Amino acid sequence: MSVNEVKIKPAPVQFELRGTGPPTSRTFVIGDEDHTLGNAIRHILINDARVDFAGYCVPHPSEPVVHVRVQTVTGNEGALTATEAVKEACTTLENQCDFVLGELEKALPEVREDREWMERWAVEELQQAAMEEEDDE
Amino acid sequence: IKQFSSPLYLSINIHCIHLPAAKSPMPPIPEPDTSATGGIYDVNESGIQFRHTPSLPTPANGDEFLKRFKSGFKFNVLERPSKNELVFEIIGVDVSFANALRRIMIAEIPTMALETVYMWNNSGLIHDEVLSHRLGLVPLNVDPRLFDEYGHDVDENGEAACTDRNTIVFKLNVVCGKNEADDERLQKKRNSEFKAEGLVSGYDVEEAQQKKSEKGGYKKSGDDDDDEMKEEVEEPSVMNLSIADRAAADAAASNLNKSSTPIDTPHRPFTRHVYTRDLLWCPQGDQLAKFPLHSTGVGSGVGGGIRPLHEDILLAKLRPGQVIELEAHAKKGIGKDHAKWSPVATASYRLMPSIEIVKPIYDELAEELVNWMEPGVFKLEETDDADHRVKAVVVNPYACTMSRNFMRNPSLKESIKMSRIPNHFIFSVESVGMMEPAVIVAEALKVLKNKAINLSGMTHEAEAMNE
Fold first, then answer.
1. Taking a C-beta distance cutoff of 8 angstroms, is the pair B280, B174 a contact?
2. Alpha helices, H only, B142-286
3. A28, A47, A104: residue with CB nearest B75
4. DSSP code of residue B160
C-alpha cells in the first residue's frame, strides 16, 4: 500500500517430504518453523516405541526451515510408516495442549471467563454478519 | 597443626580445621524420583551436568505417552505480584514443551501496534524514522483477538486492503506555542477542533468520567475495575488537571521553566513535550460502536475507546513554532517480525532446584548458611543433641537462586548436594498490559496446538499427493 511497506515473505518451501526408499524413513522439511515446533515434535516422536530414530535440525539460523528425520522400526506386522508416525505425534501434541489448557482453566478462573467472553463475542459477530447480509439483500 | 613444606599440603591443612568429627558411614542419600525424567542435573562449581538414571521404558505409542503425561502433570499458580505478572509452576512436562511455550509467548502471539506512519509535517528535532520507531513501540490498550490480520481482505487490484477490521488509525497533531500561555491557548483551540472532527483521546474521556465519579474502568472482569481506576488516578495527577495546568506541569517537568529550576537561563524558549496522550484515536467504520468511549460493561464495551496503555510516554520535544502532524496505522503482527508486537515484557522459566543436606550442618556454619549464603532457602532448627544447639534445614527450595555461595566454604560444599529437576519449571510471565498473563499462556497453548494441526494437515496432503 505504501512505498516502503515491508511484506513478510513466507518461506520458499512450506512443506516437503524427502526420502526415496521404504516408507519407514523420511525427512520432513517444514518451512516457517523453528525449534519451537521441531523440538516439541521430536520429543513426542522419540517417546514412541515404534520409532527407531527421531531427530530435528535447523540447517541455518538465517533460514526459517526445520528438518525432522523419522525412522520407524521395520517390523513384520505392517510397520508404522514415517508419515503416520508424524501424524500421530501431531495428534498427541494437540491432546497435550488441550489437556494443559484444561488444567490452566481449572487453576485460573480468568482464563475460563476469557474463553466464554470470546465465544460470546464470536457469536455476536456472526449474528451481525448475518444481519448485514440481510441488509444487503 | 602440623607444618607441611609443600604449598599443596598447606592448603589441605587449612581445610582440615573446619571438618566436623568423623561419623559413622551415612546411609545412601535419597534422591528425587527421576524415573519420569530419565536423569537429573547435578550442580557443581563449574556448572550443570546431566546424569542419567534408570528410567521407565519408552511408551508403546502416543496413547500411553499421553496417559503417563496426564498422570504426572501438575499446574500451580505460585505468585501474582501484580495484575500484569504471573508466576506459576508446571510439573511433569518436558523441556521442549516448556521452551516451545516460552518461545511462543515471546514471539508468536499476535498483537496490535503502530506500523505505518504517514508523516505530513515534522519540523521537530526528532527525525521522521526515529519518531516512527518510537510510535511503533507504544503499547496499545486493545485486545488483539478482536482484529483481523492485515493482508487477508483483498481489494479489486489484488492488494491488501486497510479496513476497520484490521487497522486502527491514530493521529498526532501538535504545535508548540511561543510560550506557556500561547501554548495553552493553542491547545484549547485545537482540542475543540479535534473533538469536532471526531478524534478521540481515551484519556480525556476517562478524565470526564472520573469527574462524574462513574465507574469508567477498562477491563472486562468486574473485580479489576476498582484496581484499574486506582491505577489511573495514582498516575501523575496531571491527568486530573485542566489542560492549562497540564502544560504547566509539562514545563515544570521539563526543567526549563524559568521560574522554578536552579538551571535558570533567562530567555530560554518554551519546550512542549509530546506524550502518548496526544495520540488521538480516529475511529473508523463501526469501531466506535465496538470500542465505545463510555463503558457499557458488556463484551468489548469496556470504555475509553482504543488508546495507548500509558499516557505519559514521552514521544518528542518541540520548540516554539515546531509542528508534528502525522497519521499512524496500527496493524496486527507477531514478535518474530518485530519486538514491538511482543505481548510480554518477558516470559521466562527456570528449573526447580533440589537441595539436600547430605551431612548435618550445625551451629556457626548453619547460621552462616541460613543468614548469609542462601537467604530464604534454609532455616535454623533446634536439635535435641547434647552438644549442638541449632541445625540447618531446607525450608523453601523455590527461593534458591543457584548462587552456589555455599560452595565457597569447603565443608558446606561437601554437606549440601544441589541439583535441578528436569521436568519441573517455574514460569514467570510479565505482560505488557493488553492481555492478562494467564490469557497469554492460554493463547500460547492454542498457537502450539494450531502448529501441530497445521503440520498434520500438510503431512496428510503430501502423503495423498505421493500416492
1. no
2. 180-197, 202-211, 224-234, 243-253
3. A104
4. B
Contacts of A70 in chain B (CB under 8 A): none
Which amino acid, one-letter code, is at B364? E
Q: Is residue B299 less than 8 Å (CB to CB) from chain A?
A: yes
- Which of A2, A114, A117, A125 best tests the B interface by mutation, with the highest count of B CBs <10 A? A114
Helix (H, G, I), strand (E, B) or coil at B279: strand
CA distances to B183, B191, B273 from B250, in Å: 11, 17, 7
Q: Residue B265: what pLDDT?
A: 67
CA B47, distance to chain mean position in Å, is: 28
B20-32: b (≥16 Cβ within 10 Å) or e: eeeeeeeeeeeee
Q: How far apart are CA B362 and CA B383, in angstroms?
A: 9
Task: List, for residues A76-111, the tens digit of each pLDDT value.
Answer: 676 789 999 999 999 999 999 999 999 999 999 989
Which set of grid coordinates corresponds to residue A81? 510408516
Residue appearing with cell numbers 467472553:
A117
Chain B residues with CB-CB distance to A5 below 8 A: 116
- Return d(Cα A40, Cα B447) in angstroms, integer: 13
Task: Report which of residues B452 and B230 the model is more confident about.
Answer: B452
Instruction: Please give, rounded to a whole number of angstroms, the shortest distance from the CA of B105 to a CA of chain A.
Output: 11
CA-to-CA distance for B138 and A4, rounded, in angstroms? 21
pLDDT surpasses 90 at B99? yes
Taking CB atoms within 8 Å and a gap of at least 24, the contacts of B217-221 are B217/B295, B217/B302, B217/B303, B218/B141, B218/B295, B218/B302, B218/B303, B218/B304, B219/B302, B220/A113, B220/A114, B220/A117, B220/B299, B220/B300, B220/B302, B221/A110, B221/A113
* Phi-psi region at B363: left, alpha or beta (left = phi > 0; alpha = psi -120 to 50): left
Residues ≥6 apart with Cβ < 8 Å to B122: B128, B131, B323, B324, B325, B326
Amino acid in the structure at residue B171 = K
Nearest-CA distance A137 → chain B (Å)? 20
CA nearest to B80, candidates B386, B436, B328: B436
